Amino acid sequence: MLHHACSPLGAAAGRFVRSLLKEFSLQKGIFVDFVCVSPSNAYQATIFGERVTAHRLNVYKGKSGQFSMEELFEYQAKSYIFILRTSRKIKYDLIHALGLFPESCTAYAFRIRFPYCVSLLPTDSAAASILTGGRPESLESFGKEIMRSAKAVFDHTAGFSKLAAPIAARKYLEAYRTITR
């Protein structure tokens, strides 16, 4: 599972990710490697239950609350290398990209080896731009190709409040089960 932010980074998206990881940790038979950015700029592994690990990669995160393009590209490169290395030992059933750019680009790169799904998040301005045509033609067509090639696309653009995130995570989990059967 890929998303650059995980609580404490990422505000609303970070809360959703944290709720999702907690829900996954309660499920039997589901193992999750979640790849995100470390808040301390050093690799950290955070374990949720027995089967969920958040791998926080050492991507330099500046002082700003928003991720810069450079930080996102560094995350994309390091998450690609992480999956490449770990998939030598682990056969992943699915790669789940939480966000259209840059996460789904990484998942798309592995499309021959693993099926993938994409979640469009309310904080994913890149997805909104693609869907509304606000990006250059080549990026728009690439975003649509990523979504066409995905095993599933989840639309979470209605938003997540602090209270709604755990409910959205449980609803997502129900849909996730149908994909991996």
In DSSP terms (H or I, runs of 4 or more residues), the helix count works out at 6
What gap, in angstroms, lies between the N and C termini?
Answer: 17 Å
Overall average pLDDT: 75
Biggest sheet: strands side by side, in what order? 1-3-2
The geometry reads as globular
Q: What letter string, H or E per element, gives the SSE order?
A: HEEEHEHEHHEH
Main sheet characteristics? 3 strands, mixed
Rg over CA atoms, rounded to whole Å, is 15 Å
Outline the low-pLDDT stretches. 160-165
Strand content: 15-25%
Question: Which descriptors would you attach to this protein?
Answer:
181 residues; alpha/beta; three-stranded mixed sheet; three-stranded parallel sheet
Structural account:
With 181 residues, this protein is α/β, with parallel strands linked by helices. The radius of gyration is 15 Å and the shape is globular. Helix content is 43%, strand content 17%. A hairpin with a 3-residue loop joins strand 2 and strand 3. The protein has six helices and six strands.
Concise synopsis of the structure shown:
The protein has six helices and six strands. The protein is an alpha/beta fold. It has a three-stranded mixed beta sheet with strand order 1-3-2.
Write the layout of secondary structure elements.
Blueprint: H1 11-25, E1 32-37, E2 44-48, E3 52-57, H2 69-86, E4 95-98, H3 103-109, E5 116-120, H4 125-132, H5 137-149, E6 152-155, H6 164-180
Parallel strand pairs: 1-3, 4-5, 5-6
Antiparallel strand pairs: 2-3
Helix pairs in contact: 1-6, 2-3, 4-5
